[in-house]
Write a structure and sequence with these properties.
649 residues, 2 domains, 27% helix, 6-hairpin_glycosidase_sf
Length: 649
């Protein structure tokens, strides 16, 4: 990862499978990641505009939406015109492969402006670009009203409207002579396409989007911007299952992970349940089709790549996490309103996940990860325990066998975990990160312990029991709220006092947004509102510095007066779990706990109202619009809901 081009200084427009990545200078020069992409291939690397023989002076470059960037430059083309610019050049760059170049004559005289656009590409895959193997630019040919490039893997073309006066393939140039009367505006539009394809049609910009258009209001105006940006980014990251286009799921993040990552897709779909259950259903169906079948110990597993776990543990199997998240998402989606027909259709896949869990644990107490001789990770036990408890509830609700055995194992695991995974010390103790082969505890305190607080939603507005007892939960809350873990902007991946701490380490000290949001939700549910409120406020403050578009992670440097969070140069932004975390944070403030099968919804708001009054509209509970408001006194009131939905107690 150290050789990846930096992403923190770039403008990344996303409407998958399209990307447009721009540097701070505005011009696409072909350096680093710059260019237009489709499906991970760079269709156009270079797009440099010159007006009257000069490059416009960039005065602003900013995102206007998840899929659009606006770049404004100025020029002085009239002699003796003073310090004011004569020509304003605006470029609207879109992830759909369009760039609109608009010139405005700000003078009182007519102008005749020569405009040149220099184009070039290598048609390289983003992986090759990241590793420095992209190769030289390809020769161009004149094509229609623009230029075309071809390679062994395909081709791309740029068409222009209006057609250029000259198209020079050898130099990769398109030229116009544009007449602008005083105060007039004219534009040139470029369209970048792979050979043989039409305009980009994205899931998130259609009427069939699976996400409800939620909005926030209240005392803190940043919450409205945070939610609006999050929903926008989630739309931009939506993908269709190629073989089943009615099913959609979220890509992990741009620019590096623009495809399916099972564990992240399930985690993000779970956090977005307040926006409806359609994304959860599509994600579950897509992953059910990947589930391993046939004989062997891996039967029922949902495959996933390995994930680096830092310096103290070997890489983790994300397939284990995905397999355990599957029944949890299905069970909670049912509580939020997933239709019984869809739940029943997905139940066999969830049963196979739970059967894999029982088989892999066997006669033991814990689930190792990876299963053969690996460490016994704390977070894996949290995932497994939650899957067993919620899975048993799901099986019972549908008259399926196996629930009793799952509950018995979960109870056995709870009793053992509270001794085996707890290290006593003078400060009150701490959970161990993992048990090494042989049973030796690894004492490093990190953010993976937040999964112990994420116990899962049962019926009647109740959360499932967790692996920790009350005293241990209280101590964990104290640890997570301490300066060693709370950087002031969010939760560090590894405590600042731990050996090997690195504020930029993506598993050894960086703030991981998803885990911080889980900590806020878990602490609030357990009644530790002060610690939850501090982490929540820090993350909202950090989001403001990132233009309300949270990256998947950023440096865990300690906050101080006048400081700002440090970006991680290789973080995905937008990222599905980071954008979905905003949904979890805001709905945690309102404490929404639905039970659609029982036609009830329970509200357990954060009583301290750390961000003042907040209203949430456009949510969905029990397949109907839902709106809630929390006052400055921490009192919640439902403002819109399904007619037959009752308020639980």
């Amino acid at each position: 990862m150290s050789d990846l081009p930096p992403t923190h200084t770039t403008l990344i427009c996303v409407a998958l499978p399209g990307l447009a990545i721009s540097g701070e200078h505005g011009q696409l020069t072909g350096r680093g990641l710059e260019g237009f992409y489709r499906g991970g291939r760079r269709l156009l690397a270079r797009c440099q505009v010159r007006v009257a023989g000069r490059e416009p002076l960039l005065v602003q470059a900013r995102m206007t939406a998840s899929d659009r960037a606006r770049l404004v430059g100025t020029l002085r083309v009239t002699p003796d015109s003073g310090p004011d610019p004569d020509v304003i050049v605006e470029r609207i760059r879109g992830a759909d492969g369009t760039e609109r170049i608009t010139l405005h004559n700000a003078t009182l005289r007519p102008l005749r402006l020569p405009v040149e656009v220099a184009l070039g590409t290598d048609l390289a895959d983003i992986g090759a670009i990241a590793s420095g193997r992209s190769g030289p630019e390809l020769p161009a040919t004149v094509h229609d009203s623009g230029l075309r490039w071809t390679s062994a893997d395909g081709g791309a073309c740029v068409t222009a409207h209006p057609s250029p006066a000259d198209a020079l393939a050898s130099a990769g140039l398109l030229r116009w002579e544009l007449d602008l009367p005083p105060g007039a505006t004219t534009a040139v539009e470029l369209r970048v396409r792979p050979d043989g394809t039409g305009p980009l049609r994205t899931v998130g910009r259609t009427a069939t989007s699976p996400l409800a258009p939620a909005r926030a209001s209240g005392d803190d105006p940043r919450l409205a911007a945070l939610l609006r940006t999050a929903v926008d980014d989630l739309h931009a990251l939506l993908l269709r299952d190629p073989g089943h286009p009615c099913d959609t799921y979220l890509a992990a993040g741009a620019p590096w992970r623009c495809g399916m990552a099972p564990a992240e897709a399930l985690a993000a779909a779970r956090m977005t349940l307040p926006l409806g259950t359609r994304l959860a259903a599509g994600t579950l169906r897509a992953l059910a089709r990947t589930q391993l079948t046939g004989p062997g110990t891996r039967q029922g597993l949902i495959p996933g790549p390995r994930r680096d776990a830092g310096a103290f543990l070997p890489p983790a199997c994300t397939g284990t996490e995905a397999t355990l998240l599957f029944p949890v998402l299905l069970a909670e989606a049912r509580r939020w309103g997933l239709a019984e027909r869809e739940t029943s259709e997905l139940l066999p896949a969830a049963e196979r996940c739970l059967a894999w869990l029982r088989t892999t644990v066997g006669d033991g107490t814990y689930l190792p990860d990876p299963p053969q001789g690996g460490p016994i990770r704390c977070e894996t036990q949290a995932h497994a325990h939650r899957a067993a408890v919620l899975g048993a509830d799901l099986l019972d609700a549908h008259g399926r066998p196996g629930g009793t055995e799952l509950r018995q194992w979960a109870e056995t695991a709870r009793r053992a975990f509270r001794t085996d995974f707890w290290i006593e010390d003078r400060s009150g103790g701490r959970p161990t990160t993992a048990l090494a082969p042989g049973g030796r505890p690894l004492p490093h305190l990190g953010s993976t312990t937040v999964h112990l607080l994420d116990t899962g939603l049962l019926g009647g507005g109740r959360y499932a029991p967790g692996l920790l007892d009350h005293a241990q939960t209280q101590q964990l809350a104290r640890l997570l709220g301490s300066p060693a873990m709370d950087a002031g902007w969010g939760l560090r991946g590894l405590g600042a006092k731990e050996a090997g701490h690195n504020p930029f380490g993506h598993r050894t000290g960086a703030v991981r947004v998803h885990e911080t949001a889980l900590a806020v939700a878990g602490l609030a549910a357990a009644g530790y509102e002060k610690e939850a409120a501090n982490l929540l406020s820090g993350l909202v403050d950090a989001a403001e510095h990132f233009g309300h578009r949270l990256p998947e992670m950023f440096a865990g440097e300690q906050r101080s007066a006048g400081s700002a969070p440090l970006p991680h140069p290789a973080a995905c932004r937008p990222a599905a779990t980071a954008a979905a975390s905003a949904i979890l944070l805001l709905t945690t403030l309102a404490g929404i706990r639905p039970d659609a099968p029982a036609r009830t919804v329970t509200l357990r708001p954060v009583r301290s109202a750390p961000l003042g009054e907040i209203g949430l509209t456009g949510l969905r509970v029990a397949e109907a619009p839902f709106a809630v408001r929390v006052s400055r006194l921490g009192l919640a009131m439902v403002e819109e809901a399904a007619d037959d939905l009752q308020l639980g107690v």
